[in-house]
Design a protein that fits this description.
Number of strands: 2
Order of helices and strands: HHEEHH
Oligomer: single chain
Radius of gyration: 33 Å
Keywords: Membrane, Transmembrane, Transmembrane helix
Largest sheet: 2 strands, antiparallel
Strand order of the largest sheet: 1-2
Strand content: under 5%
Structural class: mainly alpha
Shape: elongated
Length: about 140
């Protein structure tokens, strides 16, 4: 029978050595750096410094998104203009298919996938840099 269960009174009464050990309860992690806590507090309270840091983070992400969107629009927008200005390119065939069909019908898919993947990598790098700056 355990010492905490109610018994029929036949067991020996526990002595001072059988008392359960005291446990120390810690409410906050005292090992956390004070600067990290201050930085997180400033971000949560949206101080002027925190607003500037967050707005710079957002500007960085928007800048990379606009540059990559411009790349996609530039590449895909130049191709029709190129075929319009140089009509001889419209007559070129590659593996039995017309060059315009290949470049305008097949090229956009791997191009857009690659640009999307590149944006994802850039966004993760920006977020890691932001978290690293906050934790310093």
């Amino acid at each position: 029978m355990s010492k905490h269960a109610a018994g029929d009174g036949q067991g020996a009464t526990p002595g001072p050595s059988a008392r359960p050990r005291r446990k120390r309860v810690i409410l906050a992690d005292s090992g956390a750096p004070v600067t990290l806590l201050r930085t997180v507090d400033e971000l949560e309270e949206q101080t002027s410094w925190a607003e500037e840091v967050v707005s710079e983070f957002i500007r960085t992400k928007i800048r990379s998104a606009c540059l990559l969107a411009g790349l996609a629009v530039g590449v895909l927008g130049v191709l029709p203009a190129l075929f319009f200005l140089v009509p001889a390119l419209s007559q070129v065939t590659v593996a039995g298919m017309a060059l315009p069909w290949l470049l305008l019908g097949i090229l956009p898919f791997p191009l857009l996938f690659g640009i999307g993947y590149w944006y994802n990598v850039l966004a993760e790098e920006h977020e890691k840099a932001f978290v690293g700056m906050v934790e310093k």
